[in-house]
Specification:
This protein is α+β, with helices and mostly antiparallel strands. It is built from five helices and seven strands, in the order αβααββαββαββ. The chain has a single domain, classed as Pdz3 Domain. Strands 1, 2, 3, 4, 5, 6 and 7 form a seven-stranded mixed sheet that branches. β6 and β7 form a beta hairpin. About 8% of the residues have low confidence.
Length: 153
């Protein structure tokens, strides 16, 4: 059942808004299909209390302070159109903080899929606590990092 729900997150939560009709929304894109794993990628494993996460999700005033600002690249080192979002306004006790994000992290993907918009990431956050585990692909201080978290009851 958990595996089936993982597919649900990829299809529903990670699709960007593209008009009203679901058939108009582009398919989710696996990060691995457009970019090889970056060398020296570190992994941080976290345990997240499902209850604490759900309570934090209810703190709308705190979570609404977080901002995802699209990062634009030019010239050498460009990520060739891979959308990336720098995260600002991460406060302790927010859902962003509980999942391991910190101010100035660059969000690339979730569950191995590209995050195509800040709206898509909000959708992901709204359903992720129903999963047993998940992951975020980010850059922190210029270094690739995978935040793997397991939800515990």
């Amino acid at each position: 059942m958990r595996k089936l729900f993982s597919g649900f997150i990829a299809v529903v939560a990670l699709l960007p808004l593209a008009g009203c009709a679901p058939t108009l929304a582009p398919s989710p894109v696996l990060i691995s299909s457009i970019r090889p794993e970056l060398p020296n990628t570190k992994t941080i494993e976290l345990s997240v209390s499902r209850k604490e996460f759900d309570q934090a999700w209810g703190l709308h005033e705190l979570n609404s302070k977080a901002r995802l600002i699209e990062v634009f690249h030019s010239g050498q080192g460009s990520t060739d159109g891979i959308p990336e979002y720098r995260v600002f306004g991460v406060y302790p006790k927010s859902v962003y903080f509980l999942l391991g994000l910190r101010n100035a992290d660059v969000l690339i993907g979730a569950q191995g899929y590209l995050i195509k918009s800040s709206v898509a990431f909000q959708r992901y956050l709204s359903v992720v606590s129903r999963e047993a585990e998940s992951q975020l692909d980010i850059m922190r201080d210029g270094a690739p990092l995978v935040l793997k978290f397991r939800f515990v009851d």
